[in-house]
Amino acid sequence: MAGVRLIGAAMIVVALAGCSGGGSSEAPLDSLAAEEIFKRGEIARETEAKPDEAIRYFSEVERLYPYSQWAKRALIMQAFSQHRAKNYEEARSSAQRFLDTYPGDEDAAYAKYLLALSYYDQIDEVGRDQGLTFQALQSMRAVIEEYPDSEYASSARLKFDLAFDHLAAKEMEIGRYYLKRGQYSASINRFRTVVQDFQTTTHTAEALHRLVEAYLALGLTDEAQTAAAILGHNYQSNPFYDDSFRLLTGRGLSPEAKGEGWLRTIYRQVVRGEWM
After folding, report:
1. Which of 36, 40, 127, 254 could staple 32 via S-S, CB 3.0–4.6 A?
2. Is the pLDDT of residue 41 over 60?
3. pTM
4. How confident is the model over 205-250, as pLDDT tens digits?
5. In terms of pLDDT, which residue wins out, 55 or 13?
6. What is the domain extent for residue 98?
7. What is the band of 51 on the pLDDT scale with cuts at 50, 70, 90?
8. Residue 105's Cα: distance from chain center in Å?
């Protein structure tokens, strides 16, 4: 029994030593050179399971060796690691701090792109609030305009288009919601926004078709026919045009520009090229 008690006591001592950190062989970071701490951060960054450790090393380089070249490199890597860890607000803060401190640096374009990406990667499903989508659009536009020749400009353009399409999808979702519930005027306002403000997105054809549906439901045949005429001119092979065509012909109507409403103005601009 005495032997068992001795072994147990020895295990407790070892456990306590481990908890106290006395068994750790890592030297204090403030005793290391900036390059060494930075390299440890790089190693941790390459290990997907340790993003927080990488962030700690890079932030320590900045704290212990401020205004050094290693601090500058560590700050941009800190922003990158925070973004990878999905700490988006922290990533934006670090990227903005880099831009404020080193505005003319060769990595400024990347910092600007990381800042924009931190908004873009937070865009939720279509049904959620779109505030982050607007911020992503503004930030991606800043990358495109301020760094047009950088390697990040093309990616920013692509993501700008996708975010723009996302906003149009939001308008369509709300418009369809109103349309299904017979709130035709409210639905028309949403579809009109897509046609007027999001013409380059993938949702314009459906928006025009939904306008045909809504205007016919209200008995506004001139507007319905004009919407179908624009749809037929730009998207004649689209299934939505087939649906609109059937709706109109089923009532003895045809796709043609009629009346003097906002859609007739769109028709003149898009179909006839009359912009003045």
Report:
1. 36
2. yes
3. 0.75
4. 999 999 999 999 999 999 999 999 999 999 989 999 999 999 999 9
5. 55
6. 34-166
7. confident
8. 25
| 148 and 174 inside one domain | no
Q: Are residues 237 and 131 in the same domain?
A: no
Q: Are residues 161 and 187 located together in one domain of the fold?
A: no
Alpha-carbon distance of 123 to 95, in angstroms, equals: 19
Q: Is residue 11 scored above 70 in pLDDT? A: no
How many domains would you assign to the chain? 2
83-92 contacts, C-beta under 8 A, 24 or more apart? 83/114, 83/117, 83/118, 83/121, 84/45, 84/51, 85/51, 85/52, 85/55, 86/121, 87/55, 88/118, 88/119, 88/121, 88/122, 89/118, 91/115, 91/118, 92/118, 92/119
Asked which of 107, 141, 166 is the last residue of a domain, the reply is 166
